[in-house]
Write a structure and sequence with these properties.
The protein is mostly helical. Helices cover 59% and strands 0% of the residues. The protein has one domain. Helix 1 runs antiparallel to helix 6, helix 3 packs antiparallel against helix 6 and helix 4 crosses helix 6. The two termini are 38 Å apart. 35% of the residues are buried.
Length: 141
């Protein structure tokens, strides 16, 4: 038999926490669109900062004359650069469809452009892992 509730005790009337997607769905969303994983985990402010920063880095990379590398398994450094760029999928896909990112090798800013393009993808990988940690409960909200 359970003890009766005391008249002075309050019942827990907090609304149930909204269901959030699991770690796998969160990582996929974060890969597709920078910041989307954090939106799914209820971290809209962080998501906005990540989205603006990563997309701005990618756009600056293109503006500096950076090159969108093709996936060429025969050339390991080009292959790794391409993987890094594909880690920020939506901006990479839009730029590819727009015909941007041909790379101006003689431009003084060419290497800076490549560095921005690659760094934006690598940073998005870290952002996706952060969102995964939120989704799995490894990191407090």
């Amino acid at each position: 038999m359970t003890a009766p509730a005391r008249s002075g005790a309050r019942a827990d009337r907090s609304p149930a926490a909204p269901a959030r997607p699991g770690p796998a769905a969160t990582v996929v969303a974060a890969w597709l669109v920078p910041g989307a994983g954090h939106v799914l985990q209820g971290q809209s402010r962080k998501a906005a900062v990540f989205a603006v920063t990563l997309v701005a880095m990618f756009v600056l990379g293109l503006a500096f004359g950076g090159r969108l590398f093709a996936l060429q398994p025969g050339d390991p450094l080009v292959f790794l650069a391409a993987l890094a760029e594909w880690a920020v999928l939506a901006p990479r896909g839009v730029a590819m469809l727009a015909g941007a990112g041909r790379g101006d090798v003689v431009a003084i800013t060419y290497e800076y452009g490549n560095a921005f393009l690659i760094a934006s993808g690598l940073l998005n990988m870290l952002v996706a892992l952060d969102a995964r940690d939120l989704a799995s409960g490894r990191k407090a909200r």
